[in-house]
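Lab notebook, design round three. We kept the backbone fixed and only want residue identities now. Task for the bench partner: fill in a sequence for the structure below.
Input structure tokens:
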């Protein structure tokens, strides 16, 4: 329609939204004073949980558009007059003034999003009622044509996933092999020499620390534990390695674990270590073995961990090569 150049008798529906008229969805009943939502086709539908539709107000009268009624119950067979404003409803949860509330049924709102449609903004809570500012203008602030609740639900799931990831027990601290020293002397780990010295083995694609069979010389490294260390959870030492030989199928590493924490003597902690699981794989086949340091032995940050490692007595025929060492710990959320 083109622009007009003459007086137009424009009808006034109010300076602010006070009421609106919507075609009824098919086969629906609207008791007076109950919540009305707008469905995806723009029709009035009774307030209900989990449909994602925004509320537009309350029914100004009782309307029967059920199948079998005098109007037939078809979509758009009757119109529903809906009042906008602030209305009191039953509620679940603990809605707070100024927060968004959501439709639980045609007379109840909730502070739980889920897949519920937005009801409006809680204005006050008193006398067992949550007073909600609602109307088409409020619905538009919180939703779009694709239904806000679906988006909010997805965002909520993403936040939950991010928190779960932040608190995962799979946070890792690499312990570089170059950090290890000979525990008895503190000198750097030398090159490996068969039957003479444990050390770095230059075998192609290996370059791990190789222990001779029957060795008793422990290596050691110091690791700073992070500030987000959860001292209520266990710390797991992981070792990637393999045996050179097929005899010592019960061989393991004996791990020493000594925490040094602020406010205590550096040598005050008892050994929280023990033997890893056994390197029982076939000759030269890499396996991952572990040792769990119990949660009760893990102090709060700031602290460092002195790790020592030496093959246990079961390594008496084969050599053992360590390729990688790392710690797995559980994070906690940091506060100021």
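Proposed sequence:
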């Amino acid at each position: 329609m083109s622009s007009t150049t003459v007086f137009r008798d424009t009808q006034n529906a109010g300076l602010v939204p006070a009421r609106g008229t919507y075609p009824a969805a098919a086969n629906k009943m609207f008791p007076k004073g109950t919540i009305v939502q707008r469905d995806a086709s723009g029709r009035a539908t009774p307030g209900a949980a989990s449909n994602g539709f925004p509320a537009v107000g309350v029914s100004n009268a009782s309307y029967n558009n059920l199948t079998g009624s005098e109007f037939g119950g078809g979509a758009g067979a009757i119109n529903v007059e809906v009042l906008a404003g602030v209305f009191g409803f039953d509620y679940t949860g603990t809605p707070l003034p100024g927060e968004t509330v959501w439709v639980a049924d045609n007379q109840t709102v909730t502070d739980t999003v889920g897949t519920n449609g937005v009801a409006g903004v809680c204005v006050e809570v008193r006398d067992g009622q949550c007073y909600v500012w609602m109307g088409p203008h409020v619905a538009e602030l919180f939703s779009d044509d694709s239904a806000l609740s679906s988006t909010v639900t997805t965002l909520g799931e993403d936040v939950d996933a991010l928190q779960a990831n932040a608190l995962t027990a799979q946070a890792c601290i690499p312990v570089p092999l170059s950090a290890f020293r000979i525990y008895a002397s503190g000198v750097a780990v030398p090159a490996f020499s068969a039957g003479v010295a444990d050390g770095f083995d230059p075998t192609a694609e290996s370059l791990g620390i190789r222990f001779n069979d029957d060795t008793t010389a422990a290596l050691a490294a110091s690791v700073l534990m992070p500030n987000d260390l959860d001292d209520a959870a266990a710390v797991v030492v992981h070792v990637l390695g393999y045996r050179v030989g097929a005899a010592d199928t019960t061989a393991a590493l004996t791990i020493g674990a000594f925490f040094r924490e602020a406010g205590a003597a550096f040598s005050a902690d008892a050994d929280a270590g023990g033997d890893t699981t056994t390197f029982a794989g076939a000759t030269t086949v890499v396996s991952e073995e572990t040792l769990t340091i119990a949660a009760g032995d893990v102090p709060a940050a700031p602290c460092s961990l002195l790790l020592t490692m030496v093959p246990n007595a079961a390594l008496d025929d084969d050599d053992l090569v360590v390729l990688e060492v790392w710690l797995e710990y559980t994070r906690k959320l940091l506060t100021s």
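Keep this in mind before ordering anything: The CA atoms of residues 249 and 280 lie 5 Å apart.
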